[in-house]
Amino acid sequence: MMKNIRRLALIASCALMLAGCGGGGTSSSSSSSSSSSGSTSSSASNSVAVIVDSGPAAAGGTANEAFVSVTICSPSSPSTCQTIDHILVDTGSYGLRIISSVLSSSLTLPLQTDSSGNAIAECTMFADGYSWGPVRKANLQIGSESASNLPIQVIGDAGYSGLVPQACSSTGTAENTVATFGANGVIGLGPFAQDCGTACAQSANNGFYYTCGSGGCQPAAVSLALQVPNPVTFFATDNNGVMLTFPSVAAAGATTVSGTLVFGVDTQTNNTLGSAKVYTTNDIGYITTVYNGVSYADSFLDSGSNGYFFNDSSITQCSDGSGFYCPSSTLNLSAVNSGSNGANGSVSFSIGNASTMFNSNPNGTAFGQLGGTNGDAQSFDWGLPFFYGRSVYTVVEGYTTSGGTGPYFAY
Amino acid sequence: MKIHALAIALAAGMSMPVVAFAALGGTVASVETDRVQMKATARVARAASNFTVHELTLGSGTTVREYVAANGSIFGVAWNGPTPPNLQQILGQYFSALSDTTAVKRISHTQMRVEKADLVVHASGHMRAFAGHAYLTSMLPQGVTAADIQ
C-alpha cells in the first residue's frame, strides 16, 4: 500500500518534469513482458488496482475521482513503453485518451489516417468543455490484458493545437491540459464499443471527427474501425465489459480508497454476475430513475462523475455557488432505477453537507455522501459515490452474458 | 445593419470569426441567424403562455430551443442531443463566461454550472448525450422560471 502510493507520487512528479523524465518515464518492456509471462499462477490477472486519491499534482486536487495506471507502448517499437498513472476510470465515456504533455517524446505513436493518408483528429465533448487532439495508435497493457494498435486520442498534441476547428472550440472551454482536464487521461469503459458509433460513420457533420490535411481539419465521416474504441473490445479475452468494485467509505470521507477494476463479465471466476441485477440502457446509455415521484429519463451510472447529481429544490445548496448540497443534517434518500429491459430496483443513498465534509476532512479525497444539482432537468447522474460499497458491471453493446445482452449496467 | 453583417457572414463561410450578434439577449431575428450559422435542417415555432419557443434541429441530431418573450427578446436557450450545439453562436457575448474561472464551477466533466451576474448556464451529459440551458434572469418574463427553459 505504502509502496504503491510512493510509486504513484514518483510518476506524478515525473509527469511534471517532462524534460527530465523523457528517458526515465520510458522503459524497455523486459519487465512488463516478464511480468505477464510470470503471472500465469495468478487467478486475478484480469484485474488492476483502482485508487481514489488527490489526483495528479497539476490538477490541483480532486475529489471522488478514481484512477488506474496504464502502460502504453509504441506499435513500431513494442519494447518502448511508458506507464502513466492517474488515468480517470469513466463508465460515462468510451475510449482511452491521454494528455499529450505526460507522454514521453521517445514514445512514437503513429497517427490514425483515412484512406487518403490524412490524419484523423477528434473533438471530445464533455458537459463542461472539449478536448482536442489527433487519434494515434498505441499498444496498451493493463494487468495481463493487452491491445495492439489500439486507436487512442492524444489530447493537446502540440502539432494539432493550432488546428482546432471552430465547430469544436465553440462547444465550450478547452480542456487540453492536465490542469484543465483534471487527470493525465481517461479510460472510457462504458457500455458502447466506440466513442461515437454509427452516427460518425454515416455523417461528416458529426461533431466528433475531422480529417486534417494541408487545408486544416475538416469534418469527416469515420468508419467504426477507425474510431476510438472502448479498449476492452480490443482485448483477446475478457473483452465484453468490466466490473468495478469499491469498499464502502465512511460518512466523514477517506484520504484514499482502493478498488479493483476487473476486465470481462462472466468470463472468469472473479467477474461473475452472481445476484447482480441487469439494467439495460437505451441507445445513448440512459436508464430511468424515479426520485420523489418524478421520472428522470436521462439517468446514468457514471464513475467519472464525482457526486450524486440530481435536482431537489428542498435540499439546501452550499453558499459557494458550486451547486453541491449542504443540508443541515445528513439526508437518507432513495430512488428507483429501471432499465429498458423492465428490470427495476430501489437504491438507498445519503447526502451530507459538502462544505462540512471538505472542511472537516481537508485531506479527504473520497466522500460517499457528496451530491449536487444536475444541469439536465431530466437526469439523475449516479456518480462515484454510488460505486462505493458495490460491484458495478458494464457490458458493451452486442455482447451477451448470463444476465443478458449489452448495452447494460448491472449491480 | 444586421442584414449587412449576415451577408458578410454568409459570404465568409464556415471559417469566419464569430458573428457579433447571437441568440441569448438578442432579438427574435437572430434565431434565423443561428439557424443559418448552425445549418439547422428545421425550424419550428410554438407558442406558450407568454413566450414563444423556436426549435432548431441541427444536422448532428441536437435540438436547440430559443425562448422569445412577447417583446421579441430572447431570454433563454436550451439544448439536448448527441453533441453540445455551437454555444458560441447561441450564447453570443455570454460565451466567454464559460472560461471565466471565477464564474464557472467545474465540479465534474458531466456537470457545468455558471452563474455570473445576470447569466445562468447549467449543462449536463456524457458522451453521446448532452442537455443544458442558459438564461438571463433579468429578462425572464413575468411568471416564467428556469424550469420553463428546458
Structure in words:
The complex is a heterodimer of chains A (411) and B (150). Chain A has eight helices and 25 strands. Chain A is mainly beta and 411 residues long. In chain A, strands 19-18-15-16-21-17-20 form a seven-stranded mixed sheet. A six-stranded mixed barrel of chain A has the order 3-4-9-5-8-7. Chain B has 150 residues and is of the alpha+beta class. Chain B has an eight-stranded antiparallel sheet with strand order 1-2-3-4-8-7-6-5, with no helix packed on it. The longest helix of chain B has 11 residues, at 2-12. Chain B is globular. The N and C termini of chain B lie far apart (32 Å). The interface between A and B is large, with 57 and 44 residues.
The most extensive contact between chains is: A-B, 57 and 44 residues
Roughly how many Å is the radius of gyration of chain B?
15 Å
DSSP strand tally of chain A: 25
Q: Please, what is the oligomeric state?
A: heterodimer
pLDDT averaged residue by residue of chain A: 90
> How helix-rich are the residues of chain A, as a percent range?
10-25%
Which descriptor suits the 3D outline of chain B?
Answer: globular
Low-confidence stretches of chain B: 1-20
Strand content of chain A: 35-45%
Span from first to last CA of chain A?
27 Å
User: What is the count of β-strands of chain B?
Assistant: 8
Q: Low-confidence spans of chain A: pLDDT under 50, at least 5 residues?
A: 1-25, 28-43
For the biggest sheet of chain B, the summary is: 8 strands, antiparallel
Strand order in the sheet with the most strands of chain B: 1-2-3-4-8-7-6-5
Question: Globular, elongated, flat, extended or rod-shaped: what is the shape of chain A?
Answer: globular
Helix run count of chain B:
3
The helix/strand class of chain B is: alpha+beta
Largest sheet data of chain A? 7 strands, mixed
Classification by helices and strands of chain A: mainly beta
